[in-house]
Amino acid sequence: MIQTPNKQSREWTLEIVPAHANRISVLQGLVREIFVTMIPGTSSGESLRAVKIVKEMGFDPVPHLAARNFRDEDELAGFFTEMRQLGIKKVLLLAGGHAKAAGPFNESLDVLRSKAFRKSGLESVAIAGHPEGNPEDPNTWISLEKKRSALEELGIALEIVTQWSFSPEKVSDYLAELRRRGIDASVRVGIAGPASLKTLLKFAKVCGVNAAATVIRKQGFNMARLLVSNKPDRFISQIEGSSFFHLYPFGGLEKCANWLEGQRATESVELPLYRSDLTC
């Protein structure tokens, strides 16, 4: 269910690339779920090894599943088998960063319709939300409805994790539109973690966050410094419609950990750990 913001009930997740799995000890006590990406150039085996490390360190890993990375149904089924053996019940399903699919799965909906997915044993699936639109999919709302329907048919819970943005107005509008359409899935609002201006501009270009780069360039360096210092406190205080947040640690895990520690110090109650029962 879409949540109303409440400072005392804010909850955080965070994502890492597989190569950084050994660096997550700084996050102990700050987050429960850690998402493990499956970026181009990373094999499913590398992702699985990182997932195992995250789990061994006491966190709840949420693997990314990039549809275009999988060569065939057998490889996808093998990935799900590994997930079941690790006790993984939730993934973040994406099309993936490759321009061309390695096999028959060009978009996340192809995975949802596969035989392997029906036998996956998953209980919850997160998908991407795009408050600023998706340049690869002009029919993003139709696609979202199709994914929701496919998951409902299988009795699998839906969660949405949004792309990061510098526009709390656009994010709040997106959350309101979800409600208007009767989509009551839990929504994690993507937040750019503390990072330099140069780093954020680079990731804005890569991630397609056009509005973010435009705001920085139009408002000038002083505005950019204010935004990028990047204490996202002001941003999250203006979000209406969710108190769940997801950090993109562009400036590094240590900076994110320090910022989260600061959040705990300033809130009137200890920052709650993420509970998996909030996904629906």
Order of helices and strands: EEHEHEHHEHEHEHHHEH
Largest sheet: 8 strands, parallel, barrel
Helical coverage, percent range: 40-55%
The value of Rg in angstroms is 18 Å
Q: Quickly count the helices.
A: 10
Strand content: 15-25%
Mean pLDDT, nearest integer? 84
The CATH topology annotation reads as TIM Barrel
Q: Any idea of the CATH class?
A: Alpha Beta
The CATH level-2 architecture is identified as Alpha-Beta Barrel
Number of domains: 1
Provide the structure class. Answer: alpha/beta
Low-confidence stretches: 218-229, 268-280
**What order do the strands of the largest sheet run in, or round the barrel if closed?**
1-2-3-4-5-6-7-8
User: Globular, elongated, flat, extended or rod-shaped: what is the shape?
Assistant: globular
Oligomer: single chain
- Report the count of strand segments: 8
What is the CA–CA distance across the termini? 6 Å
Tell me what you see in this structure.
This protein has 280 residues and is an alpha/beta fold. The chain has a single domain (7-264), classed as TIM Barrel. Helices cover 40% and strands 16% of the residues. The protein is built from ten helices and eight strands. The chain has helices spanning 44-56, 73-85, 108-112, 115-118, 140-154, 168-180, 197-207, 210-228, 233-237, 253-266, and strands spanning 11-16, 33-36, 60-66, 90-94, 124-129, 157-162, 186-192, 244-248. Strands 1-2-3-4-5-6-7-8 form an eight-stranded parallel barrel. α6 links the parallel β6 and β7 (186-192). α7 (197-207) runs antiparallel to α8 (210-228). The longest helix has 19 residues, at 210-228. The radius of gyration is 18 Å and the shape is globular. The relative contact order is 0.18. Mean pLDDT is 84; it is low at 218-229 and 268-280.
